[in-house]
Specification:
By secondary structure, this protein is of the alpha+beta class. It has two domains: about 230 residues, no CATH class; about 120 residues, no CATH class. The protein contains 13 helices and 16 strands. The strands form four sheets. It has an eight-stranded mixed sheet with strand order 3-2-8-9-10-11-1-12, with helices on both faces. It has a four-stranded antiparallel sheet with strand order 7-6-14-13, with no helix packed on it. A two-stranded antiparallel ribbon has the order 4-5. Helix 9 packs across helix 11. The longest helix is centred in the C-terminal third of the chain and has 20 residues. It is globular and about 65 Å long.
Length: about 375
Amino acid sequence: MHTLQPPDITTLIETLARRGYTVVGPTVRDGAVVFDTLRSAEDLPRGRRDVQAPGSYALTAADDGALFAHHCGPTSPKRFLFPPRQHLFTARRSGKGFSVEVPGGDGTPREARYAFVGVKACELAAIRIQDRVFNQGEHVDALYAGNRRDTFVVAVNCTTAGETCFCASMGTGPAAKEGYDLVLTELTEAGAHYFTAEAGTPAGEAVLAEVPHGEASPADRARAEALVAAAARSMGRSLELDGLPKALAGNFEHHGWDDVARRCMACANCTMVCPTCFCSTVEDTTDLAGTQADRVRRWDSCFTLDFARVAGGNFRTTTRSRYRQWLTHKLSSWVDQFGTPGCVGCGRCITWCPVGIDITEEAKAVAAGATTAGT
């Protein structure tokens, strides 16, 4: 284990850029911490905290100069690996035939070679889930595979927990365990400000060798581990997974679904901020002359009415059925499909729900055979 000083984070970002990466990490924009491109550590949310609660998010200032003291904002690395809108192909009419052009020419477009900095443990788990969905098995999504290839990940262990966080109960945090090239733990106690750093891959070791660093002492390691352990104990929420998939699958007609449907606006905020949701649709457009057609893939949501529209009608017309589909897929049938829940406990869906619906409470209510009090 090594140590880095705050100025070394800029060197790290510059090193990654010099190696040809587009560096992406947390930054402040529009009153929230979001993932966007970084030029230096000055773009990071220095001295910013977020206060989250069901249906509530606000940024506050702190004087310790911490770079990664925030919790999960409304965006995640998914925005870059599985973009909200992605061009699939262009078809052009030529005489009696037509030609099709795929961005990149081989079906694996590379808009950028990404290095993600400041990725939380739950977000790492979300990337692993999307890897299973898009990048493994018999049918690999070439678009996702192209964006994912050769990515470099600098993870950050959480030393505090937000009110809507429940990653500890999901086994996905607050400590990053796998899937990173480098992992940092930020220490800002007792007037000190530095990072412990550890490489997880040979690529991480090579990058770290180009960044000024010291050797971590046993005290440094113990201090970092203690802070992460304290974050795990202070989670604002929890979800008991044992028996939950079966309980949800056996309660499709439970009256709790009606209770949540009376509050749910079916706005799709929860799916838009979720780092694992992968529903999409395609849009085809043509020019007025009929000589060119384009196909674009964009995010969709199981909460939209048209999502379940098929020939002959719509099989999910009520908010009750759409919320039930989202929650049972996330916490029950997803386990059958991919071997893990589709939830990583980041709490985004709770924070960014306009009416503060809490997935942990709704899941518990249905599984326990009782409704929540509501909001």
